[in-house]
Amino acid sequence: MNANKALWEKGDFTRLAEGMRESGEELVRKLGLTDRLRVLDLGSGDGTTAVPAAQLGAEVLGVDIASNLVAAGNARAEALGLTNLRFQEGDASDLHELDDEQFDLVVSIFGAMFAPKPFDVAKEMVRVTKPGGRIVMGNWIPNDPTLVAQILKISSSSSPPPPDGFVSPMTWGVEEEVIERFTQAGVPEERISFERDTYRFTYPTPPAEVVATFRNYYGPTMNAFEAASSNEREAELQAELETLFDEQNTSDDGTSIPATFLRLTVER
Ligand SMILES: C[S@@+](CC[C@H](N)C(=O)[O-])C[C@H]1O[C@@H](n2cnc3c(N)ncnc32)[C@H](O)[C@@H]1O
Q1: Is 114 in the pocket of ligand 1 (CB under 6 A)?
Q2: 140 forms bridges with which residues in the sheet?
Q3: Does residue 161 contact residue 149 with C-beta atoms inside 8 Å?
């Protein structure tokens, strides 16, 4: 079994994505999409960025490793009547089902960063992008004090050690690592640029309930709780996460938490 696929099919990321829609739409508005541009959303989930991109008129393909999220994305596209949007299964480390130089824009927001073999991921993203096209990635930043980097840090410190050769997804949030991966894929360094941006996680429920959603539906946090249960550390992990969410919440009657990420653009 592919452990990467199993991790994301284990939970149900749609439950978290519901609170990410506004930031997804805002990010897509910044991408300057026009009609008929061909867009690949890699690690698309159920379409937080793919749906608004299609609503702006682009021809969008969402590719994700998790079959449940592909099905959820296709259900959203159908419910919204978006005939210019479809989702299919695929692995960002090996996009063999996609031809070279097909897309004007390859976007991957907290998606391809979770695929193994980051050098292969960069190579594949470059390969499927048209000359003159763009790649835009949103990646969480290691040791950043805001929400998601801290959830992943707390979750990984409670999880069993990763297998030999495992490269942390968080390395995609380090500019030098990103430059090394894309220059090896043939992109000159001056064509890679970086900005810090913010995603907001917004839910109508209080922080403790949002922690429960992560515990029940977010693969990395589910694994952390499973590991914690074997040494009776579950209550400690729950308390640690609740403190984090409470401290970062900016809403009085629900949950609204900003999280900083690295947004990078590669001009092909
Ligand atoms: C944090 S979620 C983000 C989903 C979506 N981009 C969003 O913003 O809502 C990470 C996504 O990456 C997908 N993913 C993880 N590893 C992948 C891989 N190797 N290839 C393609 N997708 C992958 C997961 O299934 C999941 O949908």
Answers
A1: yes
A2: 261
A3: no
Q: Which of 1, 4, 7, 8 to mutate to test the pocket of ligand 1 (most atoms within 8 A of CB)?
A: 8
For a pLDDT cut of 90, what percent of the chain falls above it? Answer: 82
R_g (Cα) of the chain, nearest Å? 18
Q: For 174, left (φ over 0), alpha (ψ -120 to 50), or beta?
A: beta
Residue 244 has pLDDT above 90, yes or no: yes
Q: Number of helices and strands (H, E) in the chain?
A: 11, 7
Burial of 92-107, coded b for 16+ CB within 10 Å and e otherwise, reads bbebeebeeebbbbbb
The confidence band for 143, taking pLDDT boundaries of 50, 70 and 90, is very high
Task: Return the best residue to mutate from 15, 44, 167 for the ligand 1 pocket (most ligand atoms within 8 A of CB).
Answer: 44
* Lowest mean pLDDT segment, chosen from 155-159, 215-219, 249-253, 262-266: 155-159
186: buried, middle or exposed (CB in 10 Å: 19+, 13-18, 0-12)? exposed
